[in-house]
Amino acid sequence: MSYAVDVNQLEVAFGDLRAIEDVTVHVNYGEVVALLGPNGAGKTTLVETLLGFRAPSAGTVRLHGLNPTRDHREVVARTGALLQRGGVWAPMSPRDVLRLSASYYEAPRGIEELIALLALGGCARTPWRRLSGGEQQRTLLALALLGRPRALVLDEPTTAVDPEGRQVIRDIITTERERGCALLITTHELDEAERLADRLVVLHRGRVLIQGTLEELAGEPEMIVQTSGPIDPAGLAAVLGCSVTAENPLELRCAVESNPERIAKVTNYLASLGLSMVSLRTRASLEERYLELLGDERNGARR
Amino acid sequence: MTIRRGETLLLTVGIPVTLLLFFSLTHVTTNPGGPRVDFVAPGILALCVLSTSLVALSIATGFERSSGVLRRLWVTPLGQRRLIGAKIAGVLVTEVIQIVVLSLVALTLTWRPRGGPAGVAEVALALVLGTAGCAGIGLALAGRLRAEVNLAASNGLYLVLLLLSGIVVPLTSLPSALRRVVIALPSGAMAQSLHLVLGHGVAPTGADWLSLGLWAVAAPLLAARTFRFD
Questions:
Q1: Which chain A residue lies closest to B63 (C-alpha atoms)?
Q2: pLDDT digits over A130-183, tens only?
Q3: Which candidate in B64, B75, B81, B227 is best for mutational testing of the A interface (most A CBs within 10 A)?
Q4: Domain check: are A202 and A244 in the same one?
Q5: Within a domain: residue A300?
Q6: Judgement on whether residues A30 and A151 belong to the same structural domain of the protein
Q7: Fewest Cβ atoms nearer than 10 Å: which of A52, A138, B219, B224?
C-alpha cells in the first residue's frame, strides 16, 4: 500500500543527541493524523525531516513515495506546509505574498478564493508585521494551500489563533480530508486532536509511545462515575461485579462497559446511600489517557 | 524591496555618493596623480559592488533567515537556484542603478574615464566577477551566522575591505607586503582592475583576473555547500 507520508524506523541525531529514535508513522490519503507530545518530544524535528530540512541519520522518510531530501522540489510541489517560525517579508500583505507565491506553482489556487476561504478579506492589504497572530497563521495556511497539495503538514496550526480563526482552520482541515488530502498535524491541544484526527501518534523523548485511533488509545471500556458524595469503591465493585478504582473521593472508574442496566444499578446503589450520580462518562478523555501514558512512561523511566 | 528599505538605500546610494563627493573634493587621502576624482570614482564603483553584493545582500538574507522567510520559501517549489537567481538579479539591477548615478555625479565632478570600448568590457567583467565573489562571501556569512552576528560581521568586513582594498586609500600608500594581500581580496582585485582600466587605460593584470576568477567560483560554491535555510 502506498502511503502519502511514510516514515519507517526513523532516527535523527544532532551530534550525540538522538532527537528521533525508531519512529514509524504512516498517513494515508484522506486521513488526518495528529502528532502529540510534550515539548521536546521530537514533533518539530519529525516535521522538519519530512520536509527535507535535514536528512535522517537512519531509517527512511517518504512523501508521496519520494525522498524529501533528494526529490525536494517534487515533494514540496505536492505538499503544503505550515511551519512554526515560518515568516513573510514584513512589508508584504497577505494578498501580495499570495500573489508572489502563486508564481512558484504550476496551477495555483485562486488568490481571492483563498482570501475568502481563510477569512482574510479584512486584512488582505495589511502589512505582515501589523497582522495579529491569528491572521498571520491563517495567511500561512493560505500559502500552504496555494499549490493544491495532496498532503498537508501543519505544525501547531491553531496556536495563537482566536476561537473564530480556529473554526476556520478546523473547517479547512475537514474539507481537505474530504478532498483526499493526507494531513499530519502536530499539536499540544488535545481537544483539537480529539476533534479532528482519525488517528493519533503520541511521541515522547523522540520515540512513539503509542499510536492508534481515539478508541484504541482510550483503552478498555469503562464507566467513569462522579458522585455527589464519597463512597467505598468496594461496595460499587460488588454491585457491578468488576474492579472499581477511586480517581478521587468523588470519582470512580469502573472497569466495565456502560449499558442502561449497569447505569440503573449504579443509580440505585447511590440512592440507597443517599447520594446521586453527578456525571457519567463511558471512557477517559484523551487528555486523561495522554497524561496517564506520559505518567506511566515517566514512572517506568524512573524505575 | 531594496528601494523600499531606507537603510539599504542609504548603504547602496547615500554612502557611495557621499564618499565620492567627500574624497573628490577634500584632500584627506594621498592622490596618486591627476584630478582626485579620476582616482576616487573607480574606487567608489568597486565600493558599490562591495556594499550591494556583500553587505546589503548578506544583511537582508540574514534577516530573512532569522525571521523565517527562508524557512517558508524552502517548503515551496521556488527552489534554491531560483531564489539565488532572483537575489543575484536584484543585486545586478541595484548595481546598474548605482553605477549610473555615481557615474553621472563623477562626470559632473569632471571625471574623465579612460579605457575605450575594450575597457568597458574589462570593467564589466571585473564588476561581474567581483559581484559573484562578494555575493558568495555575503551568502556564506548569512547562511550560517545568527542575524545579529551577521550584521556585525558584514559591517565590520565592509569597513576593513573599504580601507584595505585600494578603494579610497591608494595601493601605493600601503606597505608592499600588504599590497599582495589586497590583490588576493575580491574587492582589492576589483578596485585595482577598475583603477587600471578607468584611471590609466591599462588592462588589469593576470593576478587581478586570477584573484577575481577564483573568488567568483570558490565563494558561491562555499555558500551553496554551507547555506542553511533555517
A1: A89
A2: 999 899 999 999 999 999 999 999 999 988 788 888 899 999 999 999 999 999
A3: B75
A4: no
A5: no
A6: yes
A7: B224
List CB contacts (< 8 A) between A81 and chain B: 75
Residue A212 and residue A229 in one domain = no
Which residues in chain A have Cβ-Cβ distances shorter than 8 Å to B78?
A: 104
- Looking at chain A from residue 71 to 90, which residues have their Cβ under 8 Å from any Cβ of chain B? 73, 76-77, 79, 81, 83, 85-90
- The reply to whether A32 and A120 lie within a common domain is yes
Does residue A298 lie within any of the structural domains? no
Interatomic CA distance for residues B22 and A176, integer angstroms: 62
Q: Which DSSP state fits B203?
A: P
Residue B67 to residue A143, Cβ atoms within 8 A: no
The sign one gets for the Cα dihedral B180, B182, B187, B191 is: negative
Query: How many beta carbons lie within 10 A of that of residue B124, not counting itself?
Result: 11
Q: For chain A, what is the domain count?
A: 2
Domain boundary among A183, A198, A217: A217
Asked if residue A85 and residue A12 are part of one domain, the reply reads: yes
Answer whether A197's CB lies under 8 Å from A32's CB. yes
Asked if B67's CB is within 8 angstroms of A83's CB, the reply is no
Residues A228, A213 share a domain: no
State which amino acid sits at residue B122.
Answer: E
Collapse the DSSP code of A159 into the 3-class scheme (helix H, G, I; strand E, B; otherwise coil) and give the result.
coil
- State the first-to-last Cα distance of chain A, in angstroms, to the nearest integer: 40
- Longest Cα–Cα distance of chain B, Å, equals 56
| Residue A245 structural domain | 220-282
pLDDT single digits (tens) A239-295: 999 989 887 888 888 888 888 899 999 999 999 999 999 988 876 667 777 777 777
Q: What is the pTM of this model?
A: 0.79
Q: Considering the domain boundaries, does residue A303 fall inside one?
A: no
Angle at A174 between CA A168 and CA A175, to 5 degrees: 90
Inside any domain, residue A295? no
Chain A residues in contact with B230 by the CB 8 A cut-off are 48, 53, 85
Q: Indicate yes or no: CB of B77 within 8 angstroms of CB of A147.
A: yes
Maximum separation of any 2 CA atoms in chain A, in Å: 73
How far does the CA of residue B98 sit from the closest CA of chain A (Å)? 24
Q: Of B4, B74, B79, which is closest to A53 when you measure between CB atoms? A: B74
